[in-house]
């Protein structure tokens, strides 16, 4: 469930005016920006941008980019984009790093629905004049490239039908590959990148029933093998995305690992989806509410914005 | 009374000859003459010509419905017997003394009669459903039809290919990638899955430098083909399955510049790769080739099916020029309603004048 708090009545013209006012003159009224944008869903934000453009012949995003800075600016920029466009930007940023952030690409390709992923690919083309798979392929090599390109190109069947026979045999295939440490085996990649999510969950369940442990436990996370790490991420994203996101938040707050952007990314991309359940999971796991942990870990406008997205009342 | 005898004498010179045998023979001859007169009234054509007409109507691509109608409506059972006796390519003498349809002829007729029906169905189908069904059929049939998968994946626009993937979900409750990856073994799997999953950028923007360097990479891979098959080279796969078509056409040109040859010349042994490049870079050459193969004397059924597939799936504009080149061959080898469909669609391409 979403965490953001959206009012019943919304006037896009008023919102555009309020944002304009917040950006005029010396300094910026960040609180006003948060109080408007932090309480609007994607469709509404789009309308506000259109209204702003019409009223002031200016791109609201560009204006905000110039007015704001730091973590806050990055968060607001990602928030205000259309979800598909946002994912395209996240993917591009991840690809262009000197050491590409594979997990972001995997996260996007495995936790979005097939239609959403399609929209991301279209948005990516519109923005960067290349296809997503083109850029992923051009910036990676070897087994990692193979895995990422197929994950990103997948258009999985999104129905509920599963084939138990296939689940059984593919659970066995995965088990054999893991046992032989042949993680990059073609069959593993095939299964992970083409099967529907329901089918994969059936396969993972079957694996757990047969082996007594979940498949992720048998894909060691501490090894330096980047392919193994990527595979593990993909399995976790496909198997239980909320649990995966909880872990990203936890690591980001505790500063373990290198995913600095994780906090912003998860909150911004899940606030309208399932952040509520992720919050519950976080509390269960850490005995501390997520709001509290975020408040302790961040400061200023950035903190205020994140807390608003988390559903805090003004 | 005694003067009237059964013997009649004719004076033939010095001999008297009995008239009776002559009368008898004359009567027989008269009877034969009358019966032939009777028979020729019911037969409009001579037997050998009918047999020839039937042979012609049922051999070739499609069937000549008009000739068949004329034969069937003008014959009666005696006549049909002559036809059965005369058409040894369709009828065989059964051991129990009757002329029987040859089983392989029946199979063949089924195929030829079905052509028009397939052309109708395929042409009326939504392009997405059509492509999804063609992909499924090709996959089921096996390696000899993988070329069809390449054709569809490479000659459709990005959104058309996407649509085919959606339709595949609806029709078969699986994704095409899933089925391809499960059923295709070996080195071709990577290529086919990647081709079918591509959502290529369709704008005109092309970086010449990148095209140059990728042409070089392809050249290297092809020059090394004795050590490693190009289809197993991950750079080759990357370039062919992710780059946009305008970009690939530039790569094609650059390749020609630096090597003096076309990419396909170096890939004679790798049929799927060759076809991939043809479909992406020189589709018109590809279609011409498919038509040519289908209309050859020794064309097999898969080759011939390509005719239906091409005319019902390609915009007539893509087949421009093919009409002129093959009109004569089509007249010769194709029959009936099916021929009319082929010629009609090709003519439409000429008239619309689309390139």
TrEMBL record, chain A:
Residues that coordinate or bind Ca(2+) 2: 253, 255, 257, 297
Biological processes per GO annotation: response to cold; response to heat; response to salt stress; response to water deprivation
Binding site for Ca(2+) 1: 25, 27, 67
GO MF term set: calcium ion binding; calcium-dependent phospholipid binding; phosphatidylserine binding
Cellular component terms per the entry's GO annotation: cytoplasm; plasma membrane
Annotated keywords: Annexin, Calcium, Calcium/phospholipid-binding, Metal-binding, Repeat
Repeat keyword on record: yes
SUPFAM superfamilies noted in UniProt: Annexin
Binding-site residues, Ca(2+) 3: 295, 298
Family the entry assigns: Belongs to the annexin family.
The record's note on its domains: A pair of annexin repeats may form one binding site for calcium and phospholipid.
Name by which UniProt lists this protein: Annexin
Name of the coding gene: LOC111310002
UniProtKB/TrEMBL annotation, chain B:
Keyword Transcription included in the entry's annotation: no
One GO location term (cellular component): plasma membrane
A Pfam match: Annexin
GO molecular function: calcium ion binding; calcium-dependent phospholipid binding; phosphatidylserine binding
PROSITE patterns: ANNEXIN_2 (PS51897)
Taxonomic superkingdom: Eukaryota
Protein's GO biological process: response to cold; response to heat; response to salt stress; response to water deprivation
Repeat is among the record's keywords: yes
Keywords in alphabetical order: Annexin, Calcium, Calcium/phospholipid-binding, Membrane, Metal-binding, Repeat, Transmembrane, Transmembrane helix
Record-annotated membrane-spanning stretches: 12-34
Coiled coil: none
Protein name, UniProt field: Annexin D4-like
Gene: LOC111295082
